[in-house]
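Re: the 659-residue chain
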Amino acid sequence: MMRKLTLFLALMLMLQLQLTAQTQKVKFRKIPAELLEQTTHPLDSQADAAILYQYCRVYYALTNGWFDTHTFVHKRIKIYNQDGMGWADFAIPYYAEGNFVKFKAYTYNLEEGKVVETKLENDNFNTEEFNKVFKRRKFAMPAVSPGSVIDIEYEISEPSSISLQPYYLQEEIPVDFVEYEVEIPKYYTFNKSVKGLPLPVTRKNDSRTGVIPGSGGSQTGNDNYAIYVDIYTASNVPALKEEPFVPSMNNYRTSINYELSYIQGSSGKITNFSNTWDNIAQLLMESEDFGRQMELRLTELNPLVEQWMLLPAEERVNAVYYYVRNNYNWNEYYGGLAEKGLKKLLDEKSGNSGDINLLLINLLKKVEVDVLPCVLSTTDRGFLNVSYPSLAQINYVIAALKTKDGYSFLDATNKYLDAGFLPKHTLNLDGIIVTTDKKGIKIPLTNPNKGVVATNVLCVITDDMLIKGQVKSTHTQYDACSARSVYYEEEKQGGYLKSFHDRYPGLEITNHTIEGADSLKPIITERYDFELEGQIEEAGDLIYLNPMLIWQDKINYLKSETREFPVFYHSMGTEKYMISIKLPENYQVESLPKAVRLALPNGLGTFTYSVSVTGQNLTIQYLYIKTEAIIPPTEYQALRNLLTLMIDKQAEKVVLKRV
């Protein structure tokens, strides 16, 4: 598909770009000794590494009859300490039909006052095909240690596509200087945008002249055309640290984005690419790898379809969903299109997300379910920019079922996911419904997040200060899917109970059962007997008891004091514990933590906690309700404070005195 587009662009434009030399602000392989002597970053003493310099130039060239995009990069990185060593490992993505026309990489160290250069040899990198569209060159730089400087220069030639890859000006480490230069022939018109958190970016415009050689090759037969140049620069860019509860930090890293809107050839004819979502919907529905797949005749499945049609209408969805989920394996590759096609999927029983979910849609249509495809961008790529329609943003498709209240969604790639729930990588704010009349309609992507995690504990403190008892824990809705996933994954990796014991070394479990692990209903119930040590401290006639036992929250993952973007929860609902502890007969309560009820502003959530005693029975009640999946940055401080108070309250001990 890409090769056809490349040929089309080449034939339409028939132009040859004259490459002009770019004067580098920093010379490759010229490393001042003072950079190697530097032990900490001048502006961020906590930085593990820093990008000292990064330059990227994107230009177009007609080579051997193909219209290509060239990307030239020079990057220089300083490693400050052992934690920064990961910045010496690289994985450079590029289109599968592209190639490196230049590649050099060196490590520099200071040894006995002299700068020592170590080259990355050609046999020390490898090429990995990680999906149908992209490859990546992977390598680890040699002779790297704290203090090293890495200098890399490469150029990639790729067939032209309908968009440029987003160019990020900000990273998890400081960036001293970054420059991005894009050279666009006059025949192209791009939608241009700067996304992410506000950052001082300087933009300059320039122009150059390209030449289209005449058919006879004479100077008089040449035709000149304009090349428009955009140059973006930024200096002293602060690190953007990874934060918890964020779909992707790429949503907030400052980036430059170019989406091809249309091409106007020398004849004046305009060909639209990224125009409207309706245009993109039409392209998809007419595509052999999308719309045609949903209408394929799958005669080998006709007997199943006939059986499903005998079911009541409300049962057909589950029947089809669980058939596809349980019988076809996702190969871990994302895809907005079918990679293999449904015929091959039926034979091989494995395919990308596009193959599996388009099969799901195909079969739902066959049993007369009102279903439409919904395309989206997965969380790792950042939010879908609905204001700038582009096919290049799309890398996933799910099934959207029409309901009386709107739409519900299905994704059959996850073996542990129940019907009606979406995997985390798809929960990325918005998707685009593709209608039967080839319209593209924006739709919010959510799970029916009203899950409950309820844990009931009945236990007793023994004479030798152990705690023995029984636990019943129930997960419902999306929380059941998460619990089921954890259970099966840990079973694969050595055993669920072993991982449980590794997390809580003082805990011994017997008579363990799980109900609902293989159920078609979104509920899973776990029961077990336990013996627990290490929750009681003795001091003379007093003992100090941790009332929440192993279920105590100890870490507030919201460590940053301020935050400029929301907190995203994959699910909302209720988390509750009811713990009953029978006290020894020769002890009585000396003091209890005070009961508390805390609430976030605007009804975003509440926390209730109490510890009470009746006779020799101690009762702990914990209730945390999340009513919204997205907490805006204006309420971040309140949320962070709430979590801190929750942790502090659970850390308060029950004091018992010997009588």
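Residues 1-24 have pLDDT under 50 and may be disordered.
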